[in-house]
Design a protein that fits this description.
The protein is of the alpha+beta class. It folds into two domains: 48 residues; 46 residues, no CATH class. Helices cover 41% and strands 20% of the residues. It is built from four helices and four strands, in the order H-H-H-H-E-E-E-E. Strand 2 and strand 3 form a beta hairpin. The longest helix has 21 residues. The two termini are 46 Å apart. The mean pLDDT is 77.
Length: 133
């Protein structure tokens, strides 16, 4: 094994064998549209609660001392604060993904009179931004 030069490298190698990283499953537009209103948003208290529960499940004392409890909560609060105030979300909508139909009102009802699509490479890509909440 020519590439192993430190204990850290060996540990990372064994970690990748034991729990190989798996990509996140793809998410559809419908799942996003249905799921977003149901999400509660970020909460330092909930994250701290989850960490405490996971420590208990792992057999690790949740809090060895009051100082550790205070420090752990400060750490979680700062992480959440950084995500809420500093994180950026950027999206790109590829060309051909935005389709528009233009209608005219006639005595027979709405009649399509034109169609549009973002089909030009580079120019046709729509970019968006968002915030983590």
């Amino acid at each position: 094994m020519a590439g192993i030069t430190s204990l850290d490298t060996i540990a990372k190698f064994f970690q990748s064998i034991i729990t190989p990283p798996t990509p996140l499953p793809p998410i559809t537009k419908e799942q996003i549209a249905l799921g977003m209103p149901l999400r509660p948003g970020l909460s330092a208290q909930k994250i701290w609660s989850n960490i405490k529960e996971r420590k208990t499940q792992a057999g690790v004392p949740a809090v060895p001392s009051e100082e550790d409890l205070a420090m752990e909560m400060i750490r979680v609060e700062e992480i959440v604060k950084a995500l809420l105030t500093d994180a950026k979300i950027e999206i790109v909508i590829p060309e051909t993904q935005i389709k528009v139909t233009v209608y005219s009102i006639t005595p027979a009802g709405p009649t399509p009179i034109g169609f549009g699509i973002n089909d030009q490479p580079v120019i046709g890509k729509a970019k968006g931004m968002g915030i983590i909440r």
